[in-house]
Amino acid sequence: MITRAKDKICEVKDFPKPGIGFKDITPLMQDAACYNDVIDRIASWAKKKKPQIVAGIESRGFLFAAPVAHQLGLGLAMIRKKGKLPRKTICFKAPNEYAVEYFEMHTDSILPSQRVLIVDDLIATGSSSISAIDLVKKLGGKVVGFASVVELVFLKGMDCIKKAHPEVDILILIQFEE
Questions:
Q1: How far, in Å, CA of 51 to CA of 169, rounded?
Q2: Cβ–Cβ contacts within 10 Å for residue 153, how many?
Q3: DSSP for 56-69?
């Protein structure tokens, strides 16, 4: 099923800017069997990590984090771009392959020593993933796993994440070599 899911992902050339090959996951999500298989695989892997809450990264990460949290019977914490959350937040610089941005979480979204699973849709350079892990840790959470549907291997994001956070176990379901 993972091969079928990978085949569903299409590349959109020069989006969101020239020179970028954007991996569009919407066809994967439109196929109920593929989407459900991806959610089931993440939830099955995550269950062994015994998370107490799932954190999703804006915005496409929410599409996977929410159903995983539901399957595990857990709550969902949101990692959002700066200015999107209405209450008191903690902010962390989150550079990515397009720009320098900032991630925020509500200060009460992660409890001290709480076991956190972070879910995102894609790992590219790894910078957003590292920032998300740093943000959860800044709130006192313990990152027990990081799950991503797609990895762009050629950008070496996994290497960067492992260098910054070698203690974090990572699940990748689909890899693109180019």
A1: 12
A2: 15
A3: EETTTTHHHHHHHH
Interval 101-153: pLDDT, tens: 899 999 999 999 999 999 999 999 999 999 999 999 999 999 999 999 999 99
Please give the Cα distance from 172 to 155 (Å, whole number).
Answer: 14
Q: How far apart are CA 83 and CA 146, in angstroms?
A: 24
Q: For residue 82, give both structure tokens.
A: 């700066």
> Contact at 8 Å (CB) between 112 and 119?
no
Q: Shortest CA distance to 46 belongs to which of 140, 149, 144?
A: 144
DSSP per-residue codes, the chain: -HHHHHHH-EEEET-SSTT-EEEE-HHHHHSHHHHHHHHHHHHHHHHTT--SEEEEETTTTHHHHHHHHHHHT-EEEEEEETT--SS-EEEEEEE-SS-EEEEEEETTSS-TT-EEEEEEEEESSSHHHHHHHHHHHHTT-EEEEEEEEEEEGGGTHHHHHHHH-TTS-EEEEEEE--
The pTM (predicted TM-score) of the whole model is: 0.95
Per-residue model confidence as pLDDT tens digits over 27-68:
999 999 999 999 999 999 999 999 999 999 999 999 999 999
Strands 89-95 and 100-106: antiparallel
CA nearest neighbour of 136 among 157, 163, 116: 116
